[in-house]
Structures are given as structure tokens and as C-alpha cells.
Design brief:
Layout lengths: L2 H8 L10 H8 L6 E6 L3 H11 L5 E7 L3 H10 L6 E3 L2 H6 L5 E4 L6 H10 L3 E4 L7 H12 L6 E3 L7 H11 L6 E8 L15 H4 L10 H17 L6 E7 L12 E8 L4 E8 L7 E7 L2 E5 L4 E5 L1 H8 L18 E2 L8 H15 L7 H20 L3 E2 L9
Parallel strand pairs: 1-2, 1-4, 2-3, 4-5, 5-6, 7-10
Antiparallel strand pairs: 7-11, 8-9, 8-15, 9-10, 11-12, 12-13, 13-14
Helix pairs in contact: 6-7, 7-13, 10-13
């Protein structure tokens, strides 16, 4: 860990962020082929994806939207799309439209498996929002069904696998700049009841489906799944044991999914413990993601990351020799080195670009049906441990071969 090698190999100061080779190829060789796409689910997430698609007009053209709720279709038409877009209330009619090559599925979680399965059968490429499926059985079955349609791309919306910052951190892990990582500390907190107002004529279950167990995986699926998936990817691993606790500890408003959760994952082969927590009752920490190793710690925020070397490592990388003496490491006031040197886009922007590239080149996405199934299983095991007060074990049946 000489200062010269740290600067040269990590690219933190001199080279900025390093893109994954496959992802970089997708950026540098994008063609003018436009993918005609339909959006199934026009809630907050669906509209957010539509907005990003508008930033990529050479890659995508939104042909149709679908939602069972009239006011969401109207909102999409007024605020996001033109009046020329086809509208459907039944997703099967959208899938029957031969002009549509691909679909985005941004529906409530319990519908992911059914719609994705039918979309593949209809010959569509699929960008499926996380968490991939509601249950373990659905995850296992969707892996099988996707295997029957090898010409169709199925990409799962775990966008951490596409951001330059996360690739940088993964690169540092692989080059052993963190040493042996033994502890992972994650939080995703807010001081908000997580509810949306219910328009006249609609039910709470239609609007606030995340509050009900029959539709939702709660905070673990909606928030913590991102961080769980990143650890699976960055360390090529999965938890062997999952512990969890929580409850409806503040918002006594009829919800079923918990407003306060803590998940503890044991990664035996990797020698790590992962702590994943979320609460709706305090916003002080907000979003935190720390990877703690024997050589240093990486702390990630939404659009920033800092490396904090351990004391002995800091001395090593501060050593100046005759070759690299002209380059000075920039330390922040807390003694860390910033990893992000350039502004980043939203992670979904990178993910959608790769989706387009994978469709054209028939490549397997970085976040695919197998990686998506692995994380979906983690989420379901965590929720089983959470609601049943049990310790959940990983089973051989959950292992997949690429």
C-alpha cells in the first residue's frame, strides 16, 4: 500500500471514478437503435423511470403506459408524457401490442412475478423493479421461466450495480484496499409515516399497498434490499444466517408492515456480519452505508463515498517518494479521502443505459434474474425472521449457477 500504488491503482485522485469494463463498453458503443418501451405501473417509481427515459431519447421511446388507477394514468399524461402515448388499464393488452419491444414493471411487489412471467412469454424484454419477487417460490420459478426465453433480457432494478461510485468501491474491495471486511453497518431512516393521501373513490390498500403484508415486503424490500444486494454483488456472497427484529413502534395507524426494523446477516464464508436497519421515526442518520475492514473503512452516501484508512495504513499512503512526490492526497477534515471526483447521475440512468445495451448485444445484465433471485430470497428470509421471530438459514436449493 505505497502512496504511489494507492494513487495509481485506485484512481481516486488522478483518475477519478473507474467504470466497470462491461458498463463502459455499453457507454462507448451505444447505437442509434431506439427501443420501444411500455411502462406497467405509473406510481411514483414508474413516473420516476419515465422521467429518466425522457433523458435518453436516442435509446428509448415510451409507446404505452398502463395502470389500474385512472388518476395515475391522468398524472402521467399531464406531467410526464404526451397525449400520443397509448394508455391501458389491463397490462395484458399492453403485452399484446406487437410494437412494444420491452416493458418496465413498476407495480406493487406482489404482482412482479406474474407480470414478468407473462411479459417474457409475450416476447418482451423486461426491466423489473426491485425487489424481484414477493416470495422465494416466485424467485425460483422466475429463474426457470427466464431460462426458457434466452433471447429475452430480464434486468432487475438494483441500480447500485451500475453507478460508478459503487463500481469504485467494489474495485477497492477486490484490490484489498479495505483489508478483511468484517463489519457492515447500514441505515436508511426517515421521520415520516410513509403514507400517501388516498384520493376519493380509492382504498387505502390500493394507494398504500406498502403497508400491507399481502402486497409488500415492507422496509426490507423497499429500502434495505439495495444495500443487501450491493453486499451480495461486491463480495460475491450471500448470508448464511439471518436474524431480525422490529415492530410497529410509532405509527399505530392500521399498517401491517413494520415501521422499525433491524436485520442482522451472518456471512460465514466471507467472515462478515451485516447490520441493516430502517426506521420511520427518526431522520437524523438518514442514509448510511459503512464497510469496515482491517485496512480502512468506506462510508457511502447516495452520491458520495469516502475512504478512511486505519492509522497504520494512513502513514503508508502518505509516504512520499521521488517519483510521486508531486501528487498530494487530499484529506477531508475527518481524515478521509473522497472517492467521488465527478458529479453522478441517478443510478437508474446508468441501469437503463445498460439495459438498452444488453438488449442490442444480447448480453446478460449485471443485475439479472439470478442475482435478483438471490437478493429476493435474502429479503424474504429477513421478513420471515422479522415477523416470526426465528433465525433463518440459507439452503442449497437457493444456490444458482450462471
Amino acid at each position: 500500500m505505497s502512496r504511489r500504488n494507492f494513487i495509481k491503482q485506485s484512481g481516486i485522485v488522478a483518475g477519478g471514478l473507474i467504470l466497470h469494463t462491461k458498463l463502459f463498453e455499453g457507454f462507448s458503443k451505444v447505437t442509434d437503435d431506439t427501443l420501444k418501451i411500455g411502462i406497467i405501473g405509473c406510481g411514483d417509481r414508474g413516473k420516476g423511470i419515465m422521467h429518466i427515459l425522457k433523458e435518453l431519447p436516442d435509446l428509448f421511446k415510451v409507446e404505452a403506459v398502463c395502470d389500474t388507477l385512472d388518476f395515475r394514468l391522468a398524472s402521467s399524461r399531464q406531467g410526464t408524457l404526451s397525449n400520443s402515448i397509448k394508455e391501458f388499464k389491463d397490462y395484458r393488452q399492453l403485452l399484446d401490442d406487437k410494437s412494444i419491444q420491452a416493458v418496465v414493471i413498476a407495480t406493487p411487489l406482489h404482482l412482479h412475478y406474474k407480470i414478468a412471467s407473462e411479459a417474457l412469454a409475450a416476447g418482451k424484454h423486461v426491466f423489473l423493479e426491485k425487489t424481484m419477487t414477493y416470495s422465494i417460490s416466485e424467485a425460483l420459478e422466475l429463474v426457470k421461466k427466464a431460462g426458457k426465453y434466452p433471447s429475452q433480457i430480464l434486468q432487475v432494478g438494483h441500480q447500485y450495480r451500475y453507478t460508478p461510485m459503487c463500481f469504485k468501491v467494489k474495485d477497492m474491495i477486490e484490490k484489498n484496499y479495505l483489508g478483511d471486511v468484517t463489519q457492515i453497518d447500514c441505515r436508511w431512516d426517515r421521520n415520516w409515516n410513509w403514507r400517501r393521501p388516498v384520493p376519493s373513490g380509492y382504498t387505502d390498500k390500493q394507494i398504500n399497498w406498502r403497508m400491507y403484508k399481502q402486497y409488500s415486503g415492507g422496509l426490507v424490500a423497499e429500502l434495505l434490499s439495495h444495500q443487501i444486494d450491493f453486499i451480495n454483488w461486491a463480495f460475491n456472497t450471500h448470508p448464511d444466517e439471518i436474524f431480525a427484529t422490529g415492530g410497529i413502534d410509532h405509527f399505530q395507524d392500521g399498517r401491517e408492515t413494520y415501521d422499525n426494523v433491524q436485520v442482522l446477516c451472518r456471512y460465514s464464508k466471507a467472515g462478515m456480519v451485516g447490520n441493516y436497519g430502517a426506521t420511520c421515526g427518526n431522520a437524523r442518520d438518514g442514509y448510511l452505508f459503512k464497510l469496515k475492514g482491517t485496512k480502512g473503512t468506506v462510508q457511502m452516501l447516495m452520491d458520495d463515498a469516502v475512504f478512511f484508512p486505519e492509522t497504520n495504513i494512513k502513514k503508508e499512503i502518505e509516504t512520499v517518494d521521488g517519483v510521486t512526490g508531486a501528487t498530494k492526497l487530499q484529506w477531508n477534515k475527518e481524515g478521509g479521502i473522497k472517492l467521488v471526483t465527478e458529479p453522478m447521475k441517478d443510478g437508474t440512468w446508468y441501469a437503463l443505459r445498460d439495459f438498452h445495451s444488453c438488449v442490442l448485444k444480447k448480453n446478460t445484465p449485471v443485475s439479472n434474474v439470478i442475482t435478483g433471485a438471490t437478493t429476493a430470497i435474502c429479503v424474504h428470509l429477513a421478513n420471515t425472521a422479522l415477523y416470526n421471530r426465528t433465525i433463518q438459514q440459507w439452503k442449497p436449493a437457493y444456490n444458482f449457477s450462471n
